[in-house]
Amino acid sequence: MHKIKLIIVFILFIFSSGSPVFSGKRGELKIAFLDVGQGNSQIIVTPSGYSILIDGGPKGSEPIIKKYLSRLGVTKRIDAIILSNPQIINVNGLVDIVQNYDVGFIYDPGMPFSTYVYERFLETIMTKQDQMASAKGTEEEKRLSDILAAKHHYEYFNPRAGEVLDWGPDVEAVVMGPRKLFHNTRSDPNNNSIVVKLTYGKYDFLFTGDIEEEAEISLIAQGPKIKSKIVKVPNFGAAFSSGSIFLNKVQPEFAFISVGKKNPFGYPSAGVLQRYNDQGVKIYRTDLNGTIILTTDGNSLEIQPENETPEAKILAQVYEKKTTETPVNQYVKEPKMNINAATASELVSLPGIGAFKAQMIIKYRNKHGDYKSIDDLIKVPGINKAILDKIKTKITTQ
């Protein structure tokens, strides 16, 4: 009787605790940010051995991906592949991987995108699906018996925000975006990237693909859900991404930039590096650090870059930018924001203007033309006199 009571008390203690009780040695979660040049590719292996490959990098990335899959214990089967978006710098290396590994699930945004490489990727998936189906009940089934023993093979999905991905019992993986496909943005493929938040113990990892301003605003609307200690920097650190409001909401401690050496685009942007540096975020870059492997037991984190690189070099563009800019004169008035030209990420920096109101201001402007006066903002849904009075001195119509 006393033993039963003791067990019940122990169970109640565990379930009433605000956070998981960790005892003994936990399994390890491993994540590799691969140096595939100007492209994206990450490998995740969960404590239960579930393996995930996010993106396949540009042409020529296959040997690097296979090398690190093997190093992390993945030899024949990848449990899930995520193509964050179908651009060539993400999809090219995946064709060979799908051909040569058994794959459980394949996720991509499912947006219309017509390129030879992406179409070949989809055709390869269909071919493998047909092979699995036709093998059953034949001599081929014996040859593929090890592979066919697994439950899922080449199952293709277009996930949306809110969906939970089953990556094993120890971790939580949730799709944060896209909620729905974007249209007519600066880059629809970038903004339609699959965004996943992975949680293990005390650590959250936000894999952002190549999202830009519009997708970041959509994530901001989810509030504290996007807060993560580790972030994969969106879109190679391009100026169109990693807005200040987005970073304020994510509150990362570590940032990882997948980017090619001396790439022709000048990535990562000096402004983006500045924004991360201003928040005290520790930055790693594949162009300087090479492949970077993270290991965590949920309580502590170990980061192993292929190349140790001085912080000054990581932030070189930031320091160069600081020394070449004209010093700010504290007596010069701050320039007003032109509401007829401001982007959504700029508008949300105004007091009382969140993501929804920013989108309404732009929607009204697109429908009715430029605002003739500041007072016209009162016609925008969600803008009242109190909000208008707060922002009047900070905005202009020209």
* CATH superfamily annotation of the largest domain: Ribonuclease Z/Hydroxyacylglutathione hydrolase-like
Total beta strand runs: 17
Helix content: 25-40%
| Beta fraction | 15-25%
Describe this structure in words.
The protein has 398 residues and is α/β, with parallel strands linked by helices. It folds into two domains: 24-323, Metallo-beta-lactamase, Chain A (4-Layer Sandwich), CATH 3.60.15; 337-396, AF1531-like domain (DNA polymerase, domain 1), CATH 1.10.150. It contains 17 helices and 17 strands. It has helices spanning 2-16, 62-71, 88-91, 94-100, 116-135, 139-143, 145-148, 188-191, 213-220, 244-250, 270-278, 286-289, 311-314, 316-324, 344-347, 355-368, 385-391; strands at residues 29-33, 42-45, 51-54, 77-82, 102-107, 155-157, 164-165, 172-177, 195-200, 203-207, 230-232, 254-257, 282-285, 292-296, 301-305, 337-338, 395-396. α4 (94-100) packs parallel to α5 (116-135) and α9 (213-220) packs parallel to α10. It starts with a helix and ends with a strand.
What descriptors fit this protein?
disordered N terminus; eight-stranded mixed β-sheet; seven-stranded mixed β-sheet; 398 residues; 17 strands; single chain; alpha/beta; 17 helices; Metallo-beta-lactamase, Chain A; DNA polymerase, domain 1
